[in-house]
Amino acid sequence: MTVYRLIGNMTGNSMDAVDLVLTEFDGDRMTDICAYSRPYSRVMQERMEDLRAKVRAKTRAEIEALPEFGPLHDDYIRGIADCVNEMCVANHIAKQSIDAIGFHGKTLDHHPPSVARHNHTRPYTLQMGSGQMLSDLTGLKVVYDFRSALLMSGFEGAPLAPLHNAHIAAAEGDAIYYNGGNTSNFAVISGGKIQIAADSGPFNEYVDNYVRRQVGVPFDQDGRYGAAGKLDVCFMQYMFDLGRGYYDLPLPKSGDPAYYRTEELFSAAAQNNLSFADAVQTFEYFAAYIAVQGLSLIPDTVSMPADIVLFGGGWKNPVVRRSFENILHGRGLILPEHQKSFAALKRRFAVVPRIRPSKFEAYMEARLFADMARYKLEEKAWDIPEVAAAGKRIVCGRTALPNPTQTRAYADRVNLAAKGWQDEFPDAGKTV
To answer: Which partner for 280 in 11, 82, 225, 230 could form a disulfide, CB atoms 3.0-4.6 Å apart?
Structure first.
């Protein structure tokens, strides 16, 4: 069995930092060697937010024609390359010992089949990031564009974490593995197998953006702002009603900030004269609420493990964590339309679930893409539940090799499954 040393990279929807982890894989046994994180500047976050607003529902050609796209793309890739190089130097890692970088790219839009069917539109997903440019700047093989093959074969393309969660479960046992990033997502692993997996909805999206705009900090450290506020029940109901078209979709489904209507929500908070602290408390409670609501959509045929294992920085917020536990145990505020479904969810656990962090909690999302790179190097299918249930075999990702003599413009700055891929690749579903 080949032992791999792979760097995983993630720059999530929150755009808070470049996260890297170097992991050694001996089969599915994982050992993290070192990690690195560099926060993004507020200017970079604003540039990315502006671009994200402009590229929604645009084709690849339209995106690449935007004057700000090329410079921002190149700054983004150079920043990641600098971090890779700095991590290697700081930790005395010889680059020849590294097999590849697993690079996700920056998601700017995501319109999966579950939402497309609801809206009678065509599905697509949009990630920015040239794997070739990153390879050239680091001198390392890069595996990237992990979502396109899934989307072009008729699947959601997210969440991608369930199989990585299953690899962690081999060491930590059956559980509901729950990630709290910009979007929350979970995988139910029982009997060593993935039973179901899906996104739930906004987690850090509202609170991180709100405190960043209001007080200029990247997140609510230790929940201090939220702890000072009160939950606004009427605004909670408004929040759920605003996103009901997404929240009520059956599983599996995948989320994206485009569905969460953040700007509309913030305008409503201002119009309703919510105090800063009350707004933060309500956003944090809502993050926990939607995480529970996602679990309530799990079909009755799926048995619930006794443990819930937490990943992601959002769970470090004590207001969110405490609210999640209270709602799950029936002690928190529950909207009238969810009284029955939340009570039924509580009864489905044979015992009160034990909620705990994973030993692999740190850098889980970055490590996920190192794991996916390993599968691509071995041409193994990334068997997430929706694909396995359909009896399909899909190998995710493309590979770029360093070419220091590169002089032409990079042709892979946008992933293959961007809007309009059906016209560019009419046979994609048959061949991808």
So the answer is: 225
**Whole-angstrom distance, CA of residue 186 vs CA of residue 374:** 22
**β-bridge mates for residue 88, sequence order:** none
- Structure-token pair, residue 187: 């995988």
Q: How large is the average pLDDT for residues 108-122?
A: 86
pLDDT value at residue 312: 85
Residues 192-195: contacts with CB under 8 Å, at least 24 apart = 192/166, 193/166, 194/162, 194/163, 194/165, 194/166, 194/384, 194/385, 194/388, 195/302, 195/303, 195/385
pLDDT greater than 80 at residue 320: yes
Between helices 276-296 and 339-348, what is the axis angle to 10°? 60
Numbers of helices and strands, H then E, in the chain:
19, 13
Total-model pTM: 0.88
Q: What pLDDT is recorded for position 431?
A: 45
C-alpha 51 chain-centroid distance: 19
What is residue 406's predicted lDDT score, i.e. its pLDDT? Answer: 66
DSSP calls for 346-364: HHHSSSPPEEEE-TT-TTH
Element (H, E) at 8: strand 3-10
Query: Distances in Å between the alpha carbon of 283 and those of 131, 207, 243, 325?
Result: 36, 6, 14, 16
pLDDT at 432 over 60: no
- Please state whether beta strands 193-202 and 100-103 pair in parallel, antiparallel, or not at all (unpaired): unpaired
| Candidate ranges 61-65, 112-116, 385-389, 409-413; pick with highest mean pLDDT | 61-65
Are residues 165 and 189 in contact, defined by beta-carbon separation less than 8 angstroms? yes
Tally the residues of the chain: 432
- Under a CB-based contact definition with an 8 Å cutoff, are residues 103 and 9 in contact? yes
Look up residue 352 and give its two tokens.
């009160």
- Rounded to whole angstroms, how far apart are CA atoms 388 and 196? 11
Whether residue 159 is preceded by a cis peptide bond, meaning omega within 30 degrees of 0, is: yes
Environment class of 123 (CB within 10 Å of its CB; exposed 0-12, middle 13-18, buried 19+): buried
Nearest CA among 204, 185, 337 for reference residue 252: 185
Tens digits of residue pLDDT in 48-75: 989 998 998 899 999 999 999 999 999 9
**CA distance linking residue 12 with residue 419, whole number of Å:** 20
